[in-house]
Amino acid sequence: MLIMISSYLFTISTNSMLLGIFVIIQALIYSTFVSFNMNSSWYGYILFLIMLGGILIIFMFVISISSNQILYVSFNKLFISMMFIILLLIPTILMNFSKEMTEISSLLLSENENTFLISKIFTYSYMKMTLLVILYLFLSMISIVKIAESKKGSFRSF
Q1: DSSP class of residue 38?
Q2: Membrane spanning segments where (predicted)?
Q3: How many CB atoms lie under 10 A from the CB of residue 31?
Q4: Which of 11, 33, 62, 91 sits in a 20 to 30 Å window from 154, CA-based?
Q5: What is the C-alpha to C-alpha distance for residues 140 and 130, in angstroms, rounded to an integer?
Q6: What does the alpha-carbon distance between residue 155 and residue 44 come to, in Å, rounded to a whole number?
Q7: Rounded distance, CA 21 to CA 86, Å?
Q8: Are 31 and 55 in contact (CB under 8 A)?
């Protein structure tokens, strides 16, 4: 439900600053979901750091090519959006509260199944593919740093 609300707010935003904030909020929601479904919270933490790094790089690029815009906040739109969010969240919270009271044992079983499915990519059979992806990302990062010299870097100095 939070992902739908964040996606809705993402589509109605018109400023690059708001877009960056909504993408960071979505990354936080996804990483929180992953850390709640795993036995260890490290997966969610690492996922958030990786997503935040990519978001910051994209955000710096967008800001370097966009013009300076002042962020105007319309309180009417903000109030309507907040009321819409609250109206969507109240039934969800009440429904989840009643589910939690009756299905605690099934929740514990589903956590173990999700842990097995997500940690499957780190098994021995997928180790070569995982290391290949890590090596590819590392080499692409090094080549991008070498290509983007100080004279050929961003359009605007930060």
Answers
A1: S
A2: 7-30, 42-66, 78-97, 129-148
A3: 21
A4: 11
A5: 15
A6: 34
A7: 20
A8: no
